[in-house]
């Protein structure tokens, strides 16, 4: 059996910009995970916001018309925004 390996000389290498698809936001009592993803139902661009309150996993999903809008929102979500999601969840859970 012969094995064939590609070498640098016969591969076309493209310079790629690093894609950031996850980020965590550290708050005083919570850690929030943001993930760029596709919505499973209709394959639109989405951001999933995940955190835990006690033993409850809270997942929020934001849907976007374009990847550009998804990227802009991803960059704008900060600790204040994350705390807002936590406050809303705490209110629902009557904490």
How does the major sheet shape up? Answer: 4 strands, antiparallel
Count of individual helical segments: 2
Terminus-to-terminus distance: 65 Å
Order of the strands making up the biggest sheet: 1-2-3-4
What share of residues are in beta strands? Answer: 25-35%
Order of helices and strands: EEEEHH
Helix content: 25-40%
Structural class by secondary-structure content = alpha+beta
- What is the overall silhouette? globular
Number of strands: 4
Low-confidence stretches: 8-14
Mean pLDDT: 86
> Roughly how many Å is the radius of gyration?
19 Å
Task: Summarize the structure in words.
There is one protein chain. The chain is α+β, with helices and mostly antiparallel strands and 95 residues long. It is built from two helices and four strands. Strands 1-2-3-4 form a four-stranded antiparallel β-sheet. A hairpin with a 6-residue loop joins strand 2 and strand 3. The chain starts with 21 loop residues before the first strand and ends with a helix.
């Amino acid at each position: 059996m012969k094995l064939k390996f590609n070498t640098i000389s016969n591969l076309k290498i493209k310079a790629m910009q690093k894609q950031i698809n996850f980020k965590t936001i550290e708050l005083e009592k919570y850690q929030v995970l943001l993930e760029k993803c596709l919505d499973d139902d209709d394959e639109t661009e989405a951001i999933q916001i995940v955190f835990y309150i006690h033993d409850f996993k809270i997942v929020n999903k934001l849907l976007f018309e374009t990847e550009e809008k998804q990227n802009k929102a991803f960059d704008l979500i900060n600790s204040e925004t994350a705390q807002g999601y936590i406050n809303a969840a705490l209110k629902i859970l009557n904490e």
